[in-house]
Amino acid sequence: MNNPVIESMLQRKSIRKYEDRMPSDEVIETIVRAGQQAPFAAQVYSILLSRKKKHVFGAPLLFTICVDYHKMKLIMGKRDWSMVTNDLSLLIFGIQDAAMMAENMVIAAESLGLGSVYLGNAPYVADKIAAEYNLPLKVFPLVQLAMGYPAEDAPPRLRYPMDFTLFEDEYPELTDEMIEEAMAMMDQGYMGQDYYKKNNYMIPLKNGRKETFTFDDYGWTEHISRKWGQWFPSVRDLLVQLEKRGFHITSDLDEKE
Amino acid sequence: MNNPVIESMLQRKSIRKYEDRMPSDEVIETIVRAGQQAPFAAQVYSILLSRKKKHVFGAPLLFTICVDYHKMKLIMGKRDWSMVTNDLSLLIFGIQDAAMMAENMVIAAESLGLGSVYLGNAPYVADKIAAEYNLPLKVFPLVQLAMGYPAEDAPPRLRYPMDFTLFEDEYPELTDEMIEEAMAMMDQGYMGQDYYKKNNYMIPLKNGRKETFTFDDYGWTEHISRKWGQWFPSVRDLLVQLEKRGFHITSDLDEKE
After folding, report:
1. B76 closest CB neighbour out of A134, A136, A225
2. Alpha-carbon gap, residue B109 to B31, rounded angstroms
3. Which residue in A34, A80, A210, B20 has its CB near the most CB atoms, within 10 A?
């Protein structure tokens, strides 16, 4: 069971090398328009575009996808309403709106022969992005999307087995066998493509941990474990970034390490 | 500039009336498989499916899309890692992963002749959903997606003008003219379809505010203003739901109203 729409999704992979060719205005607008038509809670996003220079991986386009309640506040003001919803709820809806919109852009781009890659670091450098684009309060840079015509090709990468993802009626107890099967599928998928070897990248170990891996046994599950096992232990930096953008999540900023 | 992929996105609209016809296992698996192939930070989601009964709007399928770090913890355990990343960061990445996956499901479903509608209330009833599906800690129900074969048809609904959404190099000052144009486009789009009239729904006014609208002037901007102007003023309920699911965002739970 297949069609061009599903094929476009199944073929999609991140692109980390781009041609030196600028997509036309029409291509860009078609992609953004497809993004806009995504379902929404409240259309609470904006898209910042930069094409003044080459971006990471040589991409001609860099989109910065923002959660945007500034526009909503302006609209509510015109209707004599003020925003009362708490900022964490606003974020949860806003992140969904922005992510669904961005995913439509990704698939639309793929269908037009373009490739893309998500860059997840924006929330942690929100202040720099805000300064660069002169963002008003209540606009929070969520994720960046580099895009252009691919100068590399690779097969799509594997995902977890479906029985590790889709659960009917009840969340099952995940057996050792299921966990190990899911891990093997991901690791063999990435290592079979020499994914980390080609990118020449292993996440460095911190706290005196000694490296024992080589590109022959460093797979996706080790990679992802090193992220969540080492990165962003403190919530403080993120809370500070959110506060600077006008999203107040908690009063205990100072207590956190 | 168009193709079947982009057409599928541009034609998509929420469906609130479904045929009494169960999609085949093959259709369901194709949709979920397309969802899984979405880009990810860490594949930190799970999909709960219920097809034991008819769901809201008569939909035969109800998917509950969860942010899921339980699986990640199990995998990290097998690799001798423990999770150290703060829970707010986990949520921000997890919501994106889950939303991108769900959006692929929506577009794949559309391409196979199915319709869908998002239900955004899951985070506020997370405890009930957790009990129903026996969710382990670190699994948070983010959003639900009802799906089936449509028993209604409507044109897609308008979105903001592109110049209210896509900003190049700098976030512009939004003039009254731009704001009013965006509002008019949305309001005329919804009212032109008798959207709220057909659904026979206006958001009730609280705090003694007197209703002055009819379906002739109640448009999208009034509707959305009533949400953010009245709903979820306190973050407390949401924080409690997150805590119950094992996501600790803040220690100032008791201070919030």
Report:
1. A225
2. 6
3. A34
Residue A154: pLDDT band (50, 70, 90) is: confident
Q: Encode pLDDT of B188-200 as tens digits.
A: 999 999 999 998 9
Query: Do the Cβ atoms of A159 and B95 come within 8 Å?
Result: no
Fold classification of B4-153 (topology level): NADH Oxidase (3.40.109)
Q: Which residues of A162-198 are buried (b: 16+ CB within 10 A; e: fewer)?
A: eebbbbeeebeebeeebbeebbebbbebbbebebbee
A90: left (phi over 0), alpha (psi -120 to 50) or beta: alpha
- Whether the CB-CB separation of B16 and B157 falls below 8 Å is answered with no
Sequence letter at residue B238: L
Rounded to a whole number of angstroms, the CA Rg of chain B reads: 20
Q: Which residue of B has its CA nearest to A76?
A: B225
Domain ranges, ordered by start, for chain A: 4-153, 158-257
ipTM computed for the complex: 0.97
Residues A194-203 have pLDDT tens digits of: 999 998 999 9
Q: How far apart are CA A224 and CA B41, in angstroms?
A: 9
More confident: B49 or B257? B49
In this complex, the residue of B30, B42, B222 whose CB is nearest that of residue A79 is B222
**Which two tokens mark B52?**
């034991």
Gap between the Cα atoms of B50 and B133, Å rounded: 10
User: Do residue B107 and residue A106 have CB atoms under 8 angstroms apart?
Assistant: no
Residues A232 and B194: their CA atoms lie apart, in Å, by: 48
Query: What string of DSSP letters covers B51-120?
Result: -SS--GGG-SEEEEEEEE-HHHHHHHHHTT----S-HHHHHHHHHHHHHHHHHHHHHHHHHTT-EEEEET
Token pair of B4 as six digits:
């079947």
Reported pTM: 0.97
User: So what's the pLDDT on residue B257?
Assistant: 44
pLDDT digits (tens, 9 = 90+) for B138-184: 999 999 999 999 999 988 999 999 999 999 999 999 999 999 999 99
| Residue % of chain B over a pLDDT of 70 | 98
Q: What is the mean pLDDT of residues B85-105?
A: 98
* Contact: A78, B9; criterion CB under 8 Å: no
| Mean pLDDT score across all residues of chain B | 95
Report whether A196 contacts A154 (CB < 8 A).
no
**Distance, CA of B62 to CA of B144 (rounded, Å):** 7
Nearest to A67 by CA among A49, A47, A86: A47
Measured distance CA(A106)–CA(B39) in Å, rounded:
9
